[in-house]
TrEMBL record:
InterPro entries: 6-PGluconate_DH-like_C_sf (IPR008927), 6PGD_dom2 (IPR013328), 6PGDH_NADP-bd (IPR006115), HIBADH-like_NADP-bd (IPR029154), HIBADH-related (IPR015815), NAD(P)-bd_dom_sf (IPR036291), Tartro_sem_red (IPR006398). Belongs to the HIBADH-related family. Keywords: NAD, Oxidoreductase. This is 2-hydroxy-3-oxopropionate reductase. It comes from Streptomyces plumbiresistens.
Length: 297
């Protein structure tokens, strides 16, 4: 099928990357992907995409390269070096990094890419696995307006709320704030769940009425069943939220912002990891509150 849509290379086909790349294929884009796990490449080809054997092969002919990997070191590993994106993508290509990384990593990447004639947007997302599957992600973008305008149709196939937040790194800064709010919100919900259960209240009824008032939130809507069923299959892993709390704590220190409650929740997330719960969904903050309240979890 010939198409006037830009050719896309997608690097990183994890919990988020796989459904997002599939949504682009559904929207008619030609997507060539690379990731380290063969079963993820098989999933991409089954959805109508093309599997590449390396980063270089994936990006060689791409108009747009999209990356979705866990953290700053992974972005640096795929972007730099002889086998990386910057050495192998063509001049004029647009690199959209949708990973959640430090703002400084995004700023440095944009500078390095400029020397190669490659334009960069940082475009982290919020909405978790469900948001990725349903193509209703919130996408916060840092970079140039002209590049944002070119990328907007791609973003519209992936998400619902799409905002250019400022220059390079701004998307990551807003994402860090997002992760601060989400973590504190989950923690508050978890404390409420333990309090309600220990008080003998019908938890489902209580969460339904709370979610209809000022205490209601997207977090509670999305995570209510996790709490009720103690189902912590990862939509967003504690390990990744631990990384993100490190980003926001560090970035806040750099700009002189005090995050007292954020700091406490960052430590609670860290404690969950230390107890072996890093692979669970971030709603497993409930387990930490249960332990503190005397339950054997």
């Amino acid at each position: 099928m010939t198409t006037n849509l830009p050719k896309i290379a997608w690097i990183g086909l994890g919990i988020m990357g796989s459904p997002m790349s599939e949504n682009l294929i559904k929207a008619g884009y030609d997507v060539t992907g690379f990731t380290l796990e063969q079963d993820k490449l098989d999933r991409l080809t089954a959805a109508g995409g093309t599997a590449a054997g390396s980063i270089a092969e994936a990006v060689r002919d791409a108009d747009v390269v999209i990356t979705m990997v866990p953290a700053s070191p992974h972005v640096e590993a795929i972007a730099y070096g002889p086998d990386g994106i910057l050495e192998n993508a063509r001049s004029g290509a647009l690199l959209i990094d949708m990973s959640s990384i430090t703002p400084q990593t995004s700023v440095d990447l944009a500078k390095a890419a400029e020397d190669k004639g490659i334009r960069v947007l940082d475009a982290p997302v919020s909405g978790g696995e469900a948001g990725a599957v349903e193509a209703v992600l919130s996408i916060m973008v840092g970079g140039e307006q002209t590049d944002f305008d070119q990328a907007e149709p791609i973003f519209e196939a992936l998400g619902r709320t799409i905002v250019l937040c400022g220059p390079h790194g701004s998307g990551q800064t807003v994402k860090a704030a997002n992760q601060l709010i989400v973590a504190v919100n989950i923690q508050a919900c978890a404390e409420a769940v333990v309090f309600l259960e220990k008080s003998g209240v019908d938890l489902k009824a209580a969460l339904d009425v709370l979610n209809g008032g000022l205490a209601g939130s997207t977090v509670l809507t999305r995570k209510k069943d996790n709490f009720l069923n103690r189902d912590f299959k990862p939509g967003f892993r504690i390990d990744l939220h631990h990384k993100d709390m490190g980003i926001v704590t560090d970035a806040a220190r750099n700009v002189g912002a005090a995050l007292p409650v954020g700091a406490v929740v960052a430590q609670l997330v860290a404690s969950l990891r230390a107890q072996g719960d890093g692979g669970l969904d971030h709603s497993a903050l409930l387990r930490a509150v249960e332990r503190l309240s005397g339950a054997q979890v």
